[in-house]
């Protein structure tokens, strides 16, 4: 009877020792080192050390079992009702600190899970990546639209001075006095103007405000 009591006490000390020196990885083969997680029906096997890389995360609190009383399945795995598709990249991030995604995996999905598990550094990385993508999408080079406007010499000054909405004067072509207005010849000009057109919802809504006749929209 005495011997059994002694063995029981040694086991107790071993267990207490493990809990106190958690920063030092426990010796290989120690059961407590490995943690099974059942995420939406898919089982993941990892270590406590990995799950606790991010101290504030739900996963760290879960495997420390302080505040969260999580249900376990029949194998003893912690049950988490989340999508397993996005859990792989999250677990890999905790393992090696990099976000690795399959090309068809949506970053929004990972962000949703990272926020649920409260993994701060990963949330920041994904948001940065999404912002970069948005930036490159909006940085489409502008199209140059050219217009050729026909006007008479006396209208020219007024036309150039009233050009607005981003239209820029490019070139003036003298086409001589091919039209006869009344008794006097008027010199006719073709005025080439250009505009940078961004992919805005309005498209080509802004028209130059002048009386000149628009010969063609594109040169």
From TrEMBL:
<feature type="domain" description="BTB">
    <location>
        <begin position="33"/>
        <end position="134"/>
    </location>
</feature>
<dbReference type="InterPro" id="IPR000210">
    <property type="entry name" value="BTB/POZ_dom"/>
</dbReference>
<dbReference type="GO" id="GO:0031463">
    <property type="term" value="C:Cul3-RING ubiquitin ligase complex"/>
</dbReference>
<dbReference type="Pfam" id="PF02214">
    <property type="entry name" value="BTB_2"/>
</dbReference>
<dbReference type="GO" id="GO:0097602">
    <property type="term" value="F:cullin family protein binding"/>
</dbReference>
<dbReference type="GO" id="GO:0045724">
    <property type="term" value="P:positive regulation of cilium assembly"/>
</dbReference>
<protein>
    <submittedName>
        <fullName>KCD17 protein</fullName>
    </submittedName>
</protein>
<dbReference type="GO" id="GO:0051260">
    <property type="term" value="P:protein homooligomerization"/>
</dbReference>
<dbReference type="InterPro" id="IPR003131">
    <property type="entry name" value="T1-type_BTB"/>
</dbReference>
<dbReference type="InterPro" id="IPR011333">
    <property type="entry name" value="SKP1/BTB/POZ_sf"/>
</dbReference>
<dbReference type="GO" id="GO:0043161">
    <property type="term" value="P:proteasome-mediated ubiquitin-dependent protein catabolic process"/>
</dbReference>
<dbReference type="GO" id="GO:0005737">
    <property type="term" value="C:cytoplasm"/>
</dbReference>
């Amino acid at each position: 009877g005495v011997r059994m009591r002694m063995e029981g006490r040694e086991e107790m000390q071993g267990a207490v020792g493990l809990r106190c020196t958690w920063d030092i990885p426990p010796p290989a083969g120690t059961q407590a080192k490995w943690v099974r997680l059942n995420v939406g029906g898919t089982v993941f096997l990892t270590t406590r050390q990995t799950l606790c890389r991010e101290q504030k995360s739900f996963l760290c609190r879960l495997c420390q079992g302080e505040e969260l009383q999580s249900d376990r399945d029949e194998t003893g795995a912690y049950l988490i009702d989340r999508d397993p598709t996005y859990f792989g990249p999250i677990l890999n991030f905790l393992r090696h600190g990099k976000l690795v995604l399959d090309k068809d995996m949506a970053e929004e999905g990972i962000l949703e899970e990272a926020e649920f598990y409260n993994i701060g550094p990963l949330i920041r990385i994904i948001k940065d990546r999404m912002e970069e993508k948005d930036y490159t999408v909006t940085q489409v080079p502008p199209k140059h639209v050219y217009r050729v406007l026909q006007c008479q010499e006396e209208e020219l000054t007024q036309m150039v001075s009233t050009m607005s909405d981003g239209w820029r004067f490019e070139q003036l072509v003298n086409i001589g006095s091919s039209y006869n207005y009344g008794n006097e010849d008027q010199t006719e000009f073709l005025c080439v103007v250009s505009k940078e057109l961004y992919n805005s919802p309005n498209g080509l809504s802004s028209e130059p405000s002048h009386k000149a006749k628009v010969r063609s929209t594109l040169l």
